[in-house]
Amino acid sequence: METLKGKQVLITGATGGIGSRVAKLISSNGAMVFITGREANKLQQVARDAGIAAERALVMDICNETSVNQAVGQVLAQAPVIDIVVNAAGIGIIKPMDTLRSEEFQLTLQTNLVGAFYLVKAVLPAMKAQKKGLIVNIPGVLGKVPMAGAAAYSASKYGLTGMMQSIREELKRTDIRITNLFLGGVDSPFWDTIDLRVQRDKMIMAEEAAKAIWFLCQQPISGVVSEMVLQPFNHQAI
Known about the structure:
Elements (H helix, E strand, L loop, with lengths): L7 E5 L4 H11 L4 E6 L2 H11 L6 E3 L5 H14 L5 E4 L14 H29 L1 E6 L13 H20 L4 E9 L2 E2 L16 E2 H11 L10 E4 L8
Parallel strand pairs: 1-2, 1-4, 2-3, 4-5, 5-6, 6-9, 7-8
Helix pairs in contact: 1-2, 1-6, 3-4, 4-5
């Protein structure tokens, strides 16, 4: 396994249930961690909890390309390289087609798919210059297996999976690695606003999901974990 000590790591969606835990885990292993999120107060609280310097907590809207470019520029102004990018930003709108609004569909695609495109496009030039790097995205199992009521979410996550697989083909002759993490149900604030009967006590704990990402960030340089699937034992969709 590769050590995280001294690595420069960018984590988006760091104010979320998974992202905040990942930030703390990776920072505690000696990495220089940069975190982003839309809400400054929450972001600074995550930074304090994880022992991350305030100047490395950057307000960023992943739906806005200018905001993404500015945040990545701020990271590169403080760190010589970006070794690892963990994209934990995302939105979940689970509704049947008869109640799903066009604006909600577009917002889901903009956040989960187009935002990931902005992020990867922003960090790739620096990674290509250093000829190495790791990008971890989280399509979730709904990026592989559809579910009723998840037309918008699955569309965005299937798109994310396909986009990253295509980018992987472009990068085959470099040491830039792409990993997709297919998480099943995780007990996190993701479900707080979703009107769906679920058994959160039988889901993966957010801390365990974060540990999976932490593990992926330590992949040996001699190989790559292209995909990892982690889902509740009682509800295995893949």
